[in-house]
Amino acid sequence: MYKYLKTAYQFGTLGGVLSILSFFILSLIYPDPTNLNLVFGYLVTPVALFLGIKFFKDYTNHGFLSFAEGMTIGFVTYILIGLLSAFGIWSILLGVPDLFASIQETKWAVLDQNKDVIVSQVGLPSFEATKLSLQEMSAWDVALNDGIWKIIPGMFFSIIISIILRRNPN
């Protein structure tokens, strides 16, 4: 089982560390790095998945890859990326409370700016629920959201990459 997970651990850890580093660097440049970090995650996650599955196929499994093997490598890789990213961002936000306050202020400004559009599209009760949700938002909510948005696309990318790279012995 370890042979399946060795490359997944390596590339999952790499992707998670890059996500944390991205959040940290973006937080130095922007008051709310969350949206740009999600975009960065949409680039890092498929690259880490592809490299993890490809390295397993080429260097561990002698050029062969079943769909199940690809999905196993992919699963461990994107779960690691999501978990490391979430816990890393949570740690940063706990260590720098001003950053969390800045993120919250930016989200309030966006909500206030778009009040008319939001109310016209989803109604006043939904807008009020969003305001309440934003008031109760914690650093863990920001971090968990980032982690989830690394895991969900990772699922789909794993399926596609596993199908593309699949090669069974004849």
TrEMBL record:
The keyword Transmembrane helix applies. The keyword Magnesium does not apply. The chain crosses the membrane at residues 12-30, 36-56, 68-93, 147-165. This is DUF4199 domain-containing protein. It holds the Pfam family DUF4199. InterPro entries: DUF4199. Keywords: Membrane, Transmembrane, Transmembrane helix.
